[in-house]
Amino acid sequence: MNAHSHTHHHHHHHADAGDKRVLWAIIVNVGLTFAQIVGGIVAGSLSLIADALHNFSDAISLIIAFAARRIARRPSDEAMTFGYVRAEVVAALINYTTLIIVGLYLVYEAVLRFYEPEPVAGWMIVIIAGVALAVDLVTALLTYALSKESMNMRAAFLHNVADALGSIAVIVAGTLIILHGWYIVDPIATLLIAGYILWTAFSEIGGTIRLLMLGTPADIDIGRLVQALEAVKGVGSVHHLHVWQIDEKNRALEAHVVLEEGAEPKAGAIKARLKELAHEDFAISHATLEFEPHGSCCEGNDAKVIGHHVGAAHAAHHH
Question: DSSP E strands: which ranges in the chain?
């Protein structure tokens, strides 16, 4: 436990530094939003206000991510015995879902613009997009490192990337329209960005849903795991095996182990070996093993089926 508390302290410091960065990203985005709304009202520019809303959606995704980071670090209590670690996964799900909605809306906008192109009101728009892009890049720099270690921050980061791409599209399309009158560039660029947003969001949301659905971690082959556990000396068979992820970093395993005849006295050593194996070869940090003596009721050929009669097993072995 001591090593854990030591790393915990280090982790806490690291987490606070991360929080500061997210907070700065929120401040920058909210600041820009207000500046754009004021500018839009003064200049009578609808597109400025539209861009402000765009940035505001970024700020919201960052606020959701920030709140989730804070909640996730709360210690476990009686209501949440696993702790609040999954708050980040829920936040990621919310942010990916909104990202998909944004992507679909952009497709709709682009299709409409193929039929009736929108006039671009001069350089003003391009300059606004340039400022927005600068803010997006600052946000990206603040959140990039964090996005590598948590799906929650990755979702917020992708929101921001989507926004940055939108700004680039406005700059490129706007410039080409002003200089050459190529209106078609606008919807094409929009479609490309929408495609990218949808592709990333759909490829990332799967992992989030899998974790919430208590799915087996993607890199664990259950068959191999059962074989490895059953290969341990003294183990007759393993059944009612469940593997799931508590959060992105912690995995849990629950299984019934039937001992070979005469192996009962060594049960303690066998259990330690099984836990060590699960941890070293399959990165499982929590293993709960229920031991059954040789020839007990649960054993039978069909019991080898994974999760066989899960409901019945749970009813019978409700702790």
Answer: 235-245, 251-259, 286-292
